[in-house]
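Dear U.,

For the methods section draft, I wanted the exact inputs and outputs in one place so we can describe them consistently. I've listed the two proteins in the order they'll appear in the manuscript figures. Please don't edit the token lines directly; just add comments below if something needs changing.

First protein:
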Amino acid sequence: MKTLIYNEIRIFFSKRNIGIFIIGYLSMIVIFCFYFVPKHNNYISSQVHYYEQMVTSDATRSKIITEQINRMKEIGEDTEKLEKSRDFWQADLENCRLVSYNLEHENAHCIAETMIKRDKLLQKVIDEGGDLSSYSIMLRNDERDLKNRIKLQDMYMKNQFYDFVYEKMPTAYYMLSNFFVFGGIPIIVILACVILSNFDCWSKDFESNTYKLLFTMTGSRAKIYLSRTIVTSITTMIMSLMMISILFVLGYFTYGLGDEVFVIVKNTFVPISMWCMNNLMITIVLLAFLSTMIQVLSLFTNSGISLLVPCLCLLVLLTDINLFSSIFSINSLILWIIILLIVIIHFCMVKYLERIDLNGAN
């Protein structure tokens, strides 16, 4: 068995597979330096621009409402609601000016205080029955999101953590969390490397007509199958985790660990470190399942290209749908079912290989 495993390790680390993963590692460095870092650097300028637009918008709203109030007073109509609306937009105008100024001077503490004040002011209007359509630009998502955001900001302020205002800062945990957002570049690179290194796991033996020699080697067919499956799966996982660790390390040495951040999961605040570790375990299981399915399909495919093309097309297709948002909400029971399914698939394949007629195989 040791000889089989050693031989499979040598086969897996072919020049092609080594090249695939080297390109994957270099891609992670390029992605960090030329995507995430510029994205963070552009964040402040984009936010300054946003708040400058809000200042202009708030000033215009205040002016229009003031004119309406004056006209209504002339004809003796009630202006209480309009006055409350005017007071809100004037207060928001001052808050936006403060945020814009402090963003330019990178004063995270003052930015955080003003952002919380702005959100709480909006929440007060909503609690008093204000028309939400007038404030949709400030809600971002919905009223529930606003309440959670205020709670989260209060927690950060209590812990004296103010860098939460820089949402795109590529810290170590921020980079790790990007692997759990489908459509994100890092996870696409990893999935592509998994597909490219596994697509001809067995089909290469059928293409070169060496499968008969392979399965008549010393040792049972089960041992031959399991040795290749174990080596390919484990090595793929290790190489994938190394790609993940590259972004984590780059984020850590450039912007810090970033473990002060919390993630809202079902209205519960979860430390980002715990959230990432949980999703990392799910990622490992799902990558193992993907590797298993590709290997099994490869066993029934005489040409590796005929499997590679559909897999890559499927990967491109999946980048356009929000698949991982549901995948990373799966519970532990479903995760164990997936693990059990992997075991069952390999067990069935062992039984299939023990009964297959090599002379009749194509």
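Second protein (the one for the lower panel):
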Amino acid sequence: MNTHARKWCVCPALSLLVLCGPVSATETRVSAMCAAEAQPAPPPQELMAAVAAGLAQRQRGEPGYGNALRRAAAGLSRAGHTPTALDVLTEVIQQPESDFDLMEGLRMRGQYARALGRATDARLAFTQMLELVDERPVLLRFTVSYVSAVQQYAAILASEGDFAGAAVVHERILQLPGGAIEEFIRAGAFVTSAHYYERAGEIAAAIETIDRLFAEYPQFGAEDGRAVRLLVHRAELDDPTHQTEGYIDALRALWARPELAGSPDLVDVGERLSAALWLRGSVEESLDVATGAVALADNIMAELQALDPGDFRLVELGESRASLVSRLSSADSVGRRDLAAWALGRLIQSATDDEVRADLQRQLSRLQ
């Protein structure tokens, strides 16, 4: 999926991230709902007239009253009359015109109750909606509404500290058949589910979910650094001590991936890998990685500086580079006086404190 020509935006109606510039049926439906949510609400009297008209339609047995009432409820919520919107949705739920009206009415009720801080009411509405879908799986074709409800319900549970429950609920998104939702939504669902599992203390499940993500989307996050950060986190979950062979192998694999060669986040991988190797006693490899990471930082920082001197990544890269050069400055302890002298020379050039610079110069003199 090409994301270069798109940008992220948030649809309040769905409580999920979408990409602007829809090109598919699902994205088109999401975009339409986002657009409707952003439109100015009609005057309250006009909305109440629409409610009365919808109720009259229902009384006469005319079709379309469910949609009319839901649209009026949405308008009332946008106009700041969410309690009244909930009353209208009660009418929809008690006498739904169709299964979809009941499904969507429950989703909206959960969303609006959540917006008012009525967590108990929101949980009940979302639970009833999911039970309805379980009873009538044909409703799964309304994926936008379904995914929105699942995300919001899981978020409520997580906000209350029930991360295990949130993980179970959120897993519903990943159980949808392939192609049911857009790739970026499904990929994001893997990340969120892994987070819920981790917070619930289910580390093995969190690692498995990250592995499922990359098994399904091998190139996920390769362009923007998310892959690096997530895979580093996976390695840390697998080994909190940062000392096992498995942890080092995971970092090695990242360090060697050609498609990540220009990623600023790879400098952090180099710093972590060099430190782990040094602690394990693999000194030569540690120094080689550190030297490569410094060169990578130099190249990336030069590119970023030319594009935007205010790029926030320059600060992080500068700190990582300084840490790496500092490690290299002690290479004389393992017989690499040349490398230590080179590193000390760099530290002297970048030093801003006179006393620190003088101390570094004394260290360099002792090596020469």
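Candidate sentences for the figure legend, describing the second protein: Strands lie at 8-11, 16-19. Residues 1-35 have pLDDT under 50 and may be disordered.

Thanks,
Y.
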